[in-house]
# Entry
Amino acid sequence: MFSKAINLSNVKSRCKIPAALLLTAAMAIVQPAMATIVQFQTVLGDFSVNLYDKTTPKTVENFLTYVKAGSYTNTVIHRSVPGFVEQGGGYKYVTKFPLVSIPQNAAVVNEPVYSNKRGTIAMAKLSGKPNSATNEWFFNLVDNSKSLDISSGGSGGYTVFGEVTGNGMAIIDAMAALNIFNVDPTNGLTSFPLKNYTAADGTNNVAITDKNLVLILGIVVLDGSPDTAANLTPVKNTLINEPVDTGSGGGGGGSMGWISLFALLGLAIIKRSRR
# Structure
């Protein structure tokens, strides 16, 4: 479907510091895994995320390992579910479709200390496997505590490891407002956000270019102090040991299978255009 090659080599670095100096600074900051403020540099704007390295140390260390390796450079937001989450960290776009999967390190232990409230970042993982998170993460667009904090389906709750600060959620909300398309159902990319691309474009098989992708150009460390989260008040996860609601009153608190962050959506969303 997408045959036109897309060259991302013209995406220039925003930083003019010499490469050798950058490498030295990055090693000095990131190696101890103490960085708590990172900046997401995206095509829709930059925003900061404050990490909880003292209360979710394994998860933050895991995330920073990918940051240090440059694994998130030129990656895409590959799943957008308005009223739920924006997900990324799993795929790069390298000149053409299909997307290239980011190599995964060993899975990290689950640390479900905080609640999946709006504006938090959490780790995606396999349904029914609490300690299966690797490189994918998601931003909570709304309060998802009733569905993602609990241990339903053997998930063990989803680990929140930081929160968006400043006006960052305005940028993430703009991502959630984009049209979504079924670009690669084989790999589960059935809710893929695209900008400047319409339902008519999809129907007419208009080639997707880098101008249409929600690119994460990079994630960099802004502040390496482990105490930058001291003035934040994240909400504790108090539902982690709650029993699963198996009643017939709806799908909000039941099995996690349908909302697993690695699973396919229950319905194939095809070329949905938002007005």
In short: The longest helix spans residues 19-30. Residues 1-33, 244-275 have pLDDT under 50 and may be disordered. The longest strand covers residues 215-223. The CA atoms of residues 20 and 199 lie 45 Å apart.
